[in-house]
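Query structure, 211 tokens:
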């Protein structure tokens, strides 16, 4: 996994492509704590508090080496460019035990959730919990009977697990995914999609897996 353009600066940088998102360090919090961006976007952390902070990739006080700003003084900032898809937890080294943690999700370009028109006779709720380190559940309802297929797909659209492929009567149901692929192996941390198809129509919901 490759990253570059790690610099210390004040102000918004100019980059060739993508969008720059700002995260503000306010007191002992990152605002927003959870941020979803696209591949080739960047993040600018701005320290508006009266004490120094870091933005360090990793979790539980253990860095994973993707980025580390070092101490950012008040009124200073740190910029990082994301060219890889994934889910990236991070924290402030001096203050993570006080709850100063954040999460950045980098989604692939061109991948969006998909909904069928409201006239179609089924509906699917959002995934929960999401992000998830365990089992993800999604509630859905069939207004009429039909053939139902439920698949887990990678961010590139590759099918990695089929949860259901059968005819079902009308009613309310819950799909559950335990984070395993078709051979029982835990999938890597990252973005996935749950695809529900009923009689040829489909809906998709984004699933974020963290470890």
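Result returned for the query:
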């Amino acid at each position: 996994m490759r990253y570059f353009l790690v610099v210390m600066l004040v102000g918004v940088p100019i980059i060739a492509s993508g969008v720059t998102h700002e995260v503000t360090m306010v007191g002992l919090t990152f605002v927003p704590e959870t941020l979803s961006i696209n591949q080739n976007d960047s993040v600018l952390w701005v320290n508006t508090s009266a004490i120094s902070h870091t933005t360090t990739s990793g979790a539980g006080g253990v860095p994973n080496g993707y980025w580390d700003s070092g101490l950012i003084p008040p009124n200073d900032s740190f910029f990082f460019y994301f060219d890889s898809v994934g889910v990236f937890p991070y924290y402030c080294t001096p203050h993570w035990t006080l709850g100063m943690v954040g999460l950045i999700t980098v989604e692939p370009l061109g991948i969006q959730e998909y909904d069928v028109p409201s006239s179609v006779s089924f509906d699917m709720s959002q995934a929960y919990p999401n992000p998830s380190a365990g089992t993800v559940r999604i509630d859905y309802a069939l207004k009429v009977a039909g053939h139902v297929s439920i698949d887990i797909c990678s961010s590139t659209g590759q099918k990695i697990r089929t949860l259901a492929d059968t005819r079902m009567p009308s009613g309310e149901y819950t799909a559950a995914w335990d984070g395993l692929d078709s051979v029982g192996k835990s999938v890597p941390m990252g973005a996935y999609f749950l695809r529900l198809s009923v009689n040829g129509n489909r809906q998709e919901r984004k699933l974020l897996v963290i470890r």
